[in-house]
Amino acid sequence: MQTSYNTAKPFIKWVGGKGQLLQQLERQLPVELFEEEFTYIEPFVGGGAMLFFMLQKFPKIKRVFVNDINGNLTDAYKTIKDEPEGLIYRLKHLEQQYLSISTEDNRKDFYLEMRHCFNEEELTKIDKTALLFFLNRTCFNGLYRENSKGKFNVPFGRYSNPTICNEEVIYADSELLNRFDVQILNGDFKQTKEKINPYGLNFFYFDPPYRPLSATSSFNSYVKEDFNDDSQRDLAEFCRRLNELDNVKWMLSNSDCSAKNPEDIFFEVIYSGFDIQRVYASRMVNANASKRGKLSELLIRNYTASTKQVSKTEEYELFNEAI
Question: Tens of pLDDT along 166-194?
Answer without folding.
Answer: 999 999 999 999 999 999 999 999 999 99
